[in-house]
Automatic annotation (TrEMBL):
<dbReference type="Pfam" id="PF04884">
    <property type="entry name" value="UVB_sens_prot"/>
</dbReference>
<protein>
    <recommendedName>
        <fullName>Protein root UVB sensitive 6</fullName>
    </recommendedName>
</protein>
<dbReference type="InterPro" id="IPR006968">
    <property type="entry name" value="RUS_fam"/>
</dbReference>
<dbReference type="InterPro" id="IPR055412">
    <property type="entry name" value="UVB_sens_C"/>
</dbReference>
<dbReference type="Pfam" id="PF24160">
    <property type="entry name" value="UVB_sens_C"/>
</dbReference>
<dbReference type="InterPro" id="IPR054549">
    <property type="entry name" value="UVB_sens_RUS_dom"/>
</dbReference>
<feature type="domain" description="Root UVB sensitive protein C-terminal">
    <location>
        <begin position="344"/>
        <end position="479"/>
    </location>
</feature>
<feature type="domain" description="Protein root UVB sensitive/RUS">
    <location>
        <begin position="111"/>
        <end position="341"/>
    </location>
</feature>
<comment type="similarity">
    <text>Belongs to the RUS1 family.</text>
</comment>
Amino acid sequence: MAPITFKQGPSSTALVREAVTRATLATSAPAAEQIQGAEVRFGPPVKILAGDATSAKVEKEKGLDLDFGSVLCWEEVNGRRCRYVVDSEKNARGARSVKLVSTDNPPPPIEEVVSFIRSFVVPEGFPDSVTPSFVPYMSWRALKHFFGGAMGVLTTQTLLRSVGVCQNRSASGAVAINWILKDGAGRLGKMIFARQGRKFDYDLKQLRFSSDLLLELGAGIELATSAAPQLFLPMACLANVIKNVAVVTSTSTRTPIYKSYARAENIGDVTAKGECVGNLADLMGTGMSIMISKHNPSMAAAFTIFSFGYLFSSYKEVKNVVLNTLNRARFNVAVDSFIKTGYVPSLKEGNFKENIFSPPWERRTSVDLGSRFGDAFQEPSSFLTIKPLFESERYMVTYNPSKDKIYALLKDQAKSDDILKAAYHAHVLLHYINSTKQKSTDFTAQLAESCRVVSSSYGAFKHKAKEQGWITSDALLNPGRARFCAYKEQ
């Protein structure tokens, strides 16, 4: 598709290509613009050239800005504050290093325990993230399940005795307890995985497909109990833990998927029909399996065929889900397309190109959003060199050559749009870094060029994304929880 030309400026493709060319040529030369006397928000004033990292470093190493113990910035993670200061020790390159200093007293053990329990039973951001009726609803729901669990023990014992598993009352009780232990282990696994919370919103498709993989693994372990009946209880418990984790994931991701198909506020009807289709297909599959089992087929061969069909169907199922929200995977598709062609893909195209096989816990990514200061900067001079470029922004973007990764750090006032812009800027900088054949530790030229292009193209990206139907007001980019805090003398 031809590059898009915007009304009030050159095409985004031309901007990117021009910037990449200039960044490549300017790698060994200082940037044209000079930032003088900038009042820096995160520390004392500093006078530097934005593109001349070498001269800035020499000036600071003389002691003008890098006095031992000088506060570089404050950081807040999960309500706890710490600060980064200039360390007295120097690294292998002879430059000052960064030291983390905690300012809060460790919380009492009881507070840690309460916080740990809360992470299982209430959503992130509670109570602001839910309506006032959430607490009474969940209280009565918990009481209902308490009595339901008690009844389950009685009914299981009765059923086992009724089918003649064991006529002895005490023996049937022991068998029932073993069976209940198996189910209890599964519920424990369900509780532990429910702690993942927002990941069910961020990486819906990836988790949905992962849950089906886990379900097949659990079924395989159950099948293996026939080969080792003496290990029935531990194997059955393990299988039930795995399968219940899969059930939590499947249940948590089901509603958003149905919601994407409900155009007339009819999510209840869509959900009911979807579950009905699933149950009908399940009954038909059960009938076919009963018919096949009468001919004594190879259990392993039949299981392999059914598993392949199940996983292939699961993959095609999630690939046909079209969501209008921007998570990390879909955002990568949209931004990469925009940078290279000036074109934002449609909802269908963007969802189709989304990588389903990228697990949410994958850490080997090129962009780290919401980073810790200590991960992004190892030397104070690298931080002081670039921070004037982001004085008017609620984020900072940098590149760490030693880790070959882009870091986007968020300030404490950062809102949803600031997070989206930080992620966009990180991808633009990544494009520049990858376009430079010889990667250098002095990347300030590319960073300065990325700032120029982002300021002129970010609005166009959002506009084109909205035209295609993407929701940009509340992106699901799953940033880290670390936030910069304003430096203040204590």
